[in-house]
Every structure is written in structure tokens, then in C-alpha cells.
Specification:
Blueprint lengths: L5 H28 L9 H21 L8 E3 L5 E5 L2 E10 L1 E9 L19 E8 L5 E10 L1 H6 L18 E6 L5 E8 L2 E7 H5 L10 E25 L3 E8 L3 E15 L4 H4 L41 H5 L8 E8 L16 E10 L2 E11 L9 E8 L8 E10 L1 H14 L3 E3 L5 H11 L9 E2 L5 E2 L2 H7 L6 E7 L6
Antiparallel strand pairs: 1-3, 2-3, 3-5, 4-10, 5-6, 6-7, 7-8, 8-9, 10-11, 10-12, 13-14, 13-17, 14-15, 15-16, 16-18, 17-21, 19-20
């Protein structure tokens, strides 16, 4: 019998191990090359997230008496899970200890009455808590009230419960009212034929200042709809006695009108701010005559007056998710919003052509390691009163065309959940429309602060050539009313780790 050397067996075993290792490496590499997809969000996972992360926040709001609706109760057996774009979502019907009803009423010019009690058809509105999970596994939530209009309800026998944010009926029309966990209304979305046709930042609308009396343009608004919010208190009555047995019923009080949201349709109209523009005559600046002898009634703007301009960053962040992936949303962090005003300490909209800048810095220390990212929102192309819109892009500190200096900043500690919501906000704005009037860097700075609980007002000012919007000048002055503010020249810090 031929006996093989033990060395041969060892070599064969090593060769097999090497082949297996190479095969595993190839398999792992191919898996890593595959594009990331949204991770499934199940009802069970959403329920776990609610009791671990959401319920404690709701309890804090109850202790602070920030709203009087009592406890929130999800109806988990009616939850719906679905996918929408890059998100996995779960919608869960809810009811509050103190019920709230949202209804809609079309307003006409002849209608001056206000309803003090809901109609039977109004009872088809409902509330839900919506959980959403991105492809990195981060989970967020928001409260949504569905308020369908009367025509839709009549066609669907006053039942709209089949609708979700992922799929609405083709003829669904009405409003979606989004709220924070504190119960405050954040956004009002108008829906027509199953599509969102308009969005209003409700807190911004509440805090909107009166029009500047020197404005070239003003909004002329018409009241078109009123949204009524009612509340009532319900008690669960339980009878358990030898004589009557066990039975229970719900006893609800009368509906009480607690809030009316006015919905306006607005257009910009020319409002002369100088009597000479309405009736030019000798002695008025710029007064002259046309060749036919008629006075020139049009307002003239000297071409030498500079107008605000925002320029793109030198190099935008190409992979924002990777740029912000250094942070752990399970741990607290610090947010700093620094503002470079055109004229420090004043609400001057622009200084020559300079509009101002807003920089956001997130810093987090985990295990003794400091992680820091500074970034700012820029348009993808130059914007001014001539071309007011472009695409939004974020740039990191080293790629900004200017030195990233500031003259006032506000610093606040944020929780892991607030950090998570802030990162979602960054991702949502990146690539969205940038507009000098409605969505600029000052707008984003204010939204970011309100996202983490600093309710800075969304102050607006008017440009010299018409139009109006949020400005770094106003944001810099508004944040001075809050704690954590530092006034004085400084430079935003560089990134770490």
C-alpha cells in the first residue's frame, strides 16, 4: 500500500482554504458594489421606535403643558406599511385623549358666517402618525391630519381612510396638515386630484411681518378657505356590577371651536411708495416728457444702484450623505448657526451686491473623538432679481468662495433625535429649488433652528427692485433674542475627523 506524505495533505488543505477565502472576498466585494436600497420598515419596528423614542418626547410635552390634547394612542392593528421613493413608511391611525377634528370650509365673498360646530360630513377627517425610514436605517416621524373636501367625501360615502401619503385616490382633494410632536402645525399642504399642489410653512405665515411701507411690491390677498379645528373630551364609562353585569360606552362632550386657519390666495401688485410715481409733475425726481408731450408716468430706477447677488460655491459637496455620515444619531451633538450680515448689527438687506451668508456647524464628541462638519447652502448658479432661482447645493467650508467669516452666531445642544431630523433636513434641501425670494440660505438657517426647537421668526425684507424674502441681515438680528448667542467677528471652524 502506498502511503502519502502528511505534508501533501497539509498543502491541499491550505489550497482549499485560500480558494474559499478568495471566493468569499469576491462575494463580499460584489455585495458592497450593489447600490444601497431602503431597509424594510415593519409595523413591529415602527411600534418599537414609538415606545422607545416618541412616547418619551410626547410625555415631555405633556409635562410642559405645551398642548392640552393629552396622550396619543396609535391603533396598531390598522397600520399600513409601504414604500415611497427612497423611504420605507408606516402610517398608523391615532386618537388623542382630547379628540381634535379638522374641517374645511370654502369661503365666498358673500359668506361672513363662522361655524361654531362641525357638520356631520366633517367627521370623515382623521389623524395619523407617519414613520419613515431612509436607506441608512434612520427613522423619523410626523403627525398628519387628513382633511378631504366635501365633494370628495360625497363621492366616497364619507370614507377617506384608504388614502395614504404613498397613494391617494386620483380624485382626492383637500388639505394635509402636518404637525410636530408638540402638536404645533408645521406645514399645510393643498391637495388636488391626488397631487400636492401647494405647501405653506404655517409657522412662517403666522410670524410674517407687516409689509414694508417702502416696498415697491406688496401682496394682495383674497381669503378663499377657512380650516376649522374643533376639540372635545371623551370619557370611557365602565359599568361592572352584579346587577347590571359588565358593559362600557364612550361619553363625549360637545365640540368646541379652538382654532381657525385662514387660507389666502395672493398675488404681487405694484404699490407706489411716492406720490410722484402716481402723478408725476414738475419738481418730481426723474420727471420728463415723451416726444408727444405727455409726461412719463413710469417709475425710473437708476442703473447705478447695486442689487443683491448670490454666487455659487467653488465646489459643492458631491456626496452629502457620506459627508454627514461621521455623526452618530444615537448621541447628542452641538449645532452652531453663524451669520455674516452685510452690515453687522443692522437689518440692511445688502451692502452693495453682497447679500450675506449663513453657515451651519455640527460638532459631536463620541468616545473622546471630536467630529465636526461646517457647511452652507448655495445656489448652483448666480441668482439675483433678474434670475432668482437655481438648484440648491451645499458646500463645505474649504470650498466656499468667501472666508466663511461671521459677526453673530448661536450655539445650542441637540439630542440624537434632533440630529437625525437635522440630517434629514439637509438631505431634503440638497438638490431642491433655490429661490432668492422663498428658499435661500437664510430661509434654511431659520428652518434648521426651528427644527431643533429654537423658534426664530421667519422675518422677511424687501429687495430694492421688488420681491421679498428671508435675509441673513434679519436672521442675524433675530437670533440675538435667544440664549447661546455670541456677537462679534469670528471664523467658522474647520472640519475634524
Amino acid at each position: 500500500m502506498k502511503i502519502r506524505s502528511p505534508l501533501f495533505a497539509v498543502l491541499a488543505l491550505c489550497a482549499a482554504s485560500i480558494i474559499t477565502f478568495i471566493a468569499c472576498r469576491k462575494e463580499n466585494k460584489s455585495s458592497a458594489d450593489e447600490p444601497s436600497v431602503p431597509q424594510e420598515l415593519t409595523v413591529k419596528q415602527a411600534r418599537g421606535h414609538f415606545y422607545k423614542n416618541v412616547r418619551p418626547i410626547l410625555a415631555q410635552h405633556e409635562l410642559k403643558n405645551e398642548h392640552k390634547r393629552g396622550k396619543l394612542y396609535p391603533i396598531w392593528d390598522k397600520a399600513k406599511a409601504y414604500s415611497k421613493g427612497e423611504f420605507e413608511m408606516v402610517e398608523v391611525p391615532i386618537y388623542w385623549e382630547r379628540r381634535q377634528l379638522t374641517t374645511m370650509h370654502r369661503r365666498s365673498t358673500k359668506d361672513t358666517t363662522k361655524r361654531m360646530a362641525p357638520d356631520m360630513s366633517d367627521l370623515a377627517g382623521f389623524d395619523r402618525i407617519v414613520f419613515f425610514k431612509d436607506k441608512k436605517g434612520n427613522v423619523g416621524q410626523k403627525l398628519v391630519s387628513y382633511s378631504p373636501d366635501a365633494a370628495y367625501l360625497a363621492r366616497h360615502r364619507y370614507d377617506a381612510s384608504q388614502n395614504t401619503l404613498g397613494k391617494m385616490d386620483d380624485d382626492f382633494s383637500g388639505y394635509l396638515i402636518e404637525r410636530s410632536l408638540s402638536g404645533k402645525i408645521t406645514f399645510l399642504k393643498k391637495v388636488k386630484n391626488g397631487k400636492v399642489t401647494g405647501t405653506m410653512d404655517y409657522q412662517k405665515a403666522l410670524a410674517k411681518r407687516k409689509q414694508n411701507p417702502q416696498a415697491r411690491y406688496e401682496e394682495e390677498c383674497t381669503l378663499v378657505e377657512e380650516i376649522y379645528i374643533y376639540e372635545n373630551i371623551c370619557l370611557l364609562i365602565v359599568v361592572d356590577s352584579p346587577e347590571e353585569g359588565y358593559w362600557e360606552y364612550v361619553d363625549c362632550g360637545d365640540w368646541e371651536l379652538v382654532e381657525v386657519i385662514l387660507v389666502y390666495e395672493c398675488v404681487d401688485v405694484w404699490v407706489p411708495d411716492d406720490p410722484c410715481e402716481e402723478n408725476p409733475q414738475p419738481g418730481c425726481p426723474g420727471y420728463d416728457y415723451w416726444p408727444d408731450g405727455e409726461p412719463n408716468p413710469g417709475p425710473t430706477e437708476p442703473s447705478a444702484i447695486p442689487y443683491p447677488v448670490q454666487v455659487p460655491a467653488g465646489a459643492p459637496i458631491t456626496d452629502l450623505a457620506s459627508y454627514l455620515s461621521v455623526f452618530d444619531t444615537g448621541d447628542p451633538a452641538t449645532l452652531t448657526v453663524a451669520v455674516n450680515q452685510p452690515s453687522p448689527g443692522f437689518r440692511t438687506v445688502h451692502n452693495n451686491y453682497y447679500f450675506g451668508d449663513v453657515y451651519l456647524t455640527i460638532e459631536q464628541t463620541v468616545g473622546g473623538l471630536v467630529r465636526r462638519r461646517t457647511l452652507s447652502l448655495f445656489p448652483s448658479a448666480q441668482v439675483s432679481y433678474i434670475n432668482i432661482s437655481a438648484i440648491s447645493r451645499f458646500a463645505q467650508r474649504k470650498d466656499m468662495m468667501y472666508s466663511a467669516d461671521y459677526d453673530v452666531k448661536i450655539e445650542t445642544g441637540i439630542s440624537g433625535l434632533q440630529l437625525h431630523n437635522l440630517i434629514l433636513l439637509f438631505q431634503g434641501w440638497n438638490g431642491s429649488p433655490y429661490n432668492l425670494n422663498t428658499y435661500n440660505n437664510a430661509t434654511f438657517g431659520g428652518v434648521a433652528l426651528r427644527t431643533v426647537g429654537i423658534n426664530v421668526p421667519p422675518t422677511e425684507s424687501t429687495w430694492i427692485y421688488g420681491g421679498r424674502g428671508n435675509t441673513p441681515a434679519d436672521l442675524g438680528e433675530d437670533i440675538k433674542a435667544f440664549s447661546g448667542v455670541t456677537v462679534g467677528y469670528g471664523t467658522t471652524p474647520a472640519n475634524l475627523n
